[in-house]
What does this fold into?
Amino acid sequence: MMKIVVLATAASLAMLSAAAAADLPRKEPPPPPPPVGKAPIGKAPIGKFPIGKAPPPQPVVTKG
It folds into this structure.
C-alpha cells in the first residue's frame, strides 16, 4: 500500500514539474533594428485629392 502512495506522489510531482517548466519563458532573438533613413514622404497618393473628388478610374482597354 505504501508503495502505491509513493509512486503516485512521485508521478504527481513529475507531472507538476513538467507543467511548471512548460510555463517558463523562452529566450527569443531581439527584434530587427528599424530602418535608418528618410521615410518616402509624398510618394503615396494619400491626400493628393479632396475627399470624394478623386479622378474616375481609367477604363480597361483590351486589344483583340
In short: The mean pLDDT is 77.
